[in-house]
Structure to design on (699 residues):
């Protein structure tokens, strides 16, 4: 047999992987979310450097294939070695079954995975050992299965990258890593959002056909098993390629340096991006970002936040008039972009209730979400704290007993609750809120009679509205004020909800339907609330957790962070528009100002209605950290990178000036060093305070 043919399993699968990657790039280039034009150099980088990177990534990913192929032999089944090896597998299986292994120390599904893997290895080795007449057939079908598995994984990865791009407009990132943790919700979401049976039927059919042709071209490897000398040569060549690949992949990733973000994303290898996200789930600010001397950073922060001094944000907030301890209901709406509302230019009439409520409220027209995930929005309104690099505080281990809005309300004698229609275990919400003194009302607390409709994310918003009213009625009877934070769920893929509620069918799975049904459920909630005795003594705060999409031509597209927010309390809050720039972290400190609360504060968020407030907004991803101020967006990123963009409004004659959200983001020709340092001061001090555990609640 020609020695080159002994590599046929490798190069046939590699060719298939590169073809799939090539087709995927073409599809993503023409995807509607890819809102850009590519110059010739961009196209060359996407396809040439991208495909070379893919080839090296495949070499690394084929390590398991190499190990499988290199250990195919007949000699290991000869006496006594076959029985010795089989006995070893039996002993290992019994050891894992004993429950005293390192796998059990890690817990979770790991012991079961280990048991299944070793069990299958033992079974297959036993069949090959004790059925020598059928050894060739068993080996052929096992070889076919391994080829099929690789083909399925290659196709599945391509499909996953497509749907991830469809949702976020990027290759795999930190979000994809998070999805692995919450497989139940994510798999359920996929099952309800997409035609899974036809999709996977087609996947397995195509995989079967491709596997047939690959096996036909590569089965000579098992028909004429390489000799020991040939395996040494194969190992030498593969290990050399593996070494080159381990160096080449990160080197080529550094070539993702185009001004066009989409070029960088399309050039990148998805699997390597996933690996990077997995390894860097927590980003050390002081290792990856530009820094200032500690005292200088806090001194700069002190110029932005009145009354702070030293290396802390602790200060006294004091009102000149008596406190007004009203009930507070905070409603964070899932994935609710500003441009869903009529005032911001939408003409679909999908938010009729909130459009009307906004006209009766203190409406913040120029407010930006801090991030693009629910946990970032929850962090912003609960901790009133900048979005630090890496994971949200909500999902970190050190997330308890923080200085929070809940801790302020607790000091004032309030009952404090978090209401969520799904399982609060998701995204670590339960651990975070219980750890910060909140009681939880989630799907687990519902009786079967209280649920009229549910999907993978939880009960519909209408059911949660009914539960919220019951909860608040019970709290009102206790004679104490209450603070309830309700996080909605219905405006989330798969966008399913009860039929016959709005003019968009509940099974149409449309974003517009999800938005309009949430609006409908909120109308029902306020209709019920207005009839309760506690209504006149209650302030309602309504805002989004984040926008519906965060994809754009730049790292931080400003319009993808603009969210609506309002405070409604008839007879207490006079309707008007606040048009100055502000952040999601400012909403609750502003509310505390309206309630005339006196308290010790560590918040980075500020009362925007005070005369000393300086307009600015903080927006971020898990690694790009931004500050909007003076119509300039400053972004600091890992590797001490800094970018600045001039924000130039793109006028829309049909929309009032205060509601216009679209800007051209043009790179600044001359750096605004003052804004760079101010950006650093916000994020560096926030990271420092968390690292030193200086954001704990004030006792």
């Amino acid at each position: 047999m020609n020695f080159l043919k002994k590599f046929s399993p490798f190069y046939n699968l590699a060719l298939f992987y590169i073809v799939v990657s090539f087709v995927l790039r073409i599809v993503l280039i023409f995807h509607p979310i890819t809102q850009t034009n590519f110059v010739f150099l961009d196209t060359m980088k996407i396809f040439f450097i991208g495909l070379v990177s893919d080839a090296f990534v495949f070499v690394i990913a084929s390590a398991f294939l190499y190990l499988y192929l290199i250990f195919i032999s007949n000699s290991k089944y000869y006496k006594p070695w076959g029985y010795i090896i089989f006995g070893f597998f039996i002993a290992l299986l019994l050891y894992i079954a004993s429950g005293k292994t390192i796998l059990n120390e890690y817990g979770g599904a790991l012991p079961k995975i280990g048991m299944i893997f070793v069990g299958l290895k033992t079974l297959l080795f036993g069949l090959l050992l004790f059925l020598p007449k059928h050894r060739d057939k068993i080996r052929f079908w096992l070889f076919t299965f391994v080829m099929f598995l690789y083909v399925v994984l290659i196709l599945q990865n391509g499909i996953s990258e497509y749907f991830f791009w469809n949702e976020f407009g990027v290759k795999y990132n930190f979000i994809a890593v998070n999805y692995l943790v919450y497989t139940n919700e994510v798999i359920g979401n996929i099952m309800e959002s997409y035609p899974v049976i036809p999709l996977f039927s087609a996947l397995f059919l195509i995989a079967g056909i491709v596997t047939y042709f690959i096996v036909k071209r590569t089965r000579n490897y098992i028909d004429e098993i390489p000799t020991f000398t040939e395996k040494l040569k194969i190992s030498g060549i593969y290990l050399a390629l593996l070494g080159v690949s381990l160096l080449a992949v990160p080197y080529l990733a550094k070539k993702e340096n185009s001004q066009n973000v989409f070029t960088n994303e399309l050039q990148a290898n998805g699997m390597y991006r996933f690996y990077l996200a997995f390894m860097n789930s927590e980003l050390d600010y002081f290792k990856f970002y530009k820094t200032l001397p500690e005292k200088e950073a806090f001194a700069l922060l002190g110029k932005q936040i009145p009354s702070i001094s030293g290396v802390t944000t602790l200060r006294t907030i004091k009102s000149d008039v008596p406190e007004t301890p009203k009930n507070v209901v905070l409603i964070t709406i899932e994935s609710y972009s500003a441009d869903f509302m009529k005032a911001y230019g939408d003409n679909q009439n999908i938010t009729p209730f909130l459009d009307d409520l906004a006209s009766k409220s203190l409406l913040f027209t120029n407010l930006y979400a801090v991030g693009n995930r629910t946990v970032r929005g929850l962090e912003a309104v609960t901790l009133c704290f900048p979005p630090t690099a890496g994971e949200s505080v909500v999902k970190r281990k050190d997330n308890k007993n923080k200085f929070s809005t809940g801790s302020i309300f607790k000091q004032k004698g309030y009952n404090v609750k978090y209401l969520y229609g799904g399982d609060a275990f998701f995204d670590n919400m339960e651990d975070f809120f219980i750890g910060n003194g909140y009681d939880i009302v989630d799907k687990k607390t519902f009786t079967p009679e209280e649920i009229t409709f549910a999907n993978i994310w939880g009960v519909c918003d209408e059911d949660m509205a009914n539960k919220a009213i019951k909860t608040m009625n019970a709290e009102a009877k206790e004679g104490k004020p209450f603070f309830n934070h309700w996080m909605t769920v219905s405006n989330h893929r798969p966008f399913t909800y009860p039929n016959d509620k709005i003019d968009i069918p509940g099974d149409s799975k449309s974003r517009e339907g999800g938005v309009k049904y949430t609006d409908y459920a909120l109308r029902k909630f306020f209709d019920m609330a207005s009839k309760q005795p506690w209504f006149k003594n209650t302030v309602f705060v309504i805002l989004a957790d984040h926008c519906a999409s965060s994809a754009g031509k730049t790292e931080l597209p400003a319009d993808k962070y603009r969210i609506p927010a309002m405070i409604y309390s008839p007879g207490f809050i006079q309707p008007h528009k606040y048009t100055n720039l502000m952040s999601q972290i400012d909403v609750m400190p502003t509310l505390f100002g309206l309630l005339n609360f006196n308290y010790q504060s560590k918040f980075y968020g500020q009362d925007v209605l005070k005369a000393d407030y300086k307009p600015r907004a903080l927006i971020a991803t898990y690694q790009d950290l931004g500050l909007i101020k003076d119509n300039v967006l400053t972004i600091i990123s890992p590797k001490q990178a800094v970018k600045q963009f001039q924000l130039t409004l793109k006028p829309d004659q049909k929309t009032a000036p205060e509601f216009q959200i679209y800007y051209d983001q043009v790179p600044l020709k001359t750096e605004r060093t003052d804004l760079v340092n101010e950006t650093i001061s916000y994020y560096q001090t926030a990271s420092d305070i968390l690292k030193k555990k200086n954001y704990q609640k004030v006792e």
Notes: The first helix runs from residue 8 to 29. The CA atoms of residues 52 and 637 lie 26 Å apart.
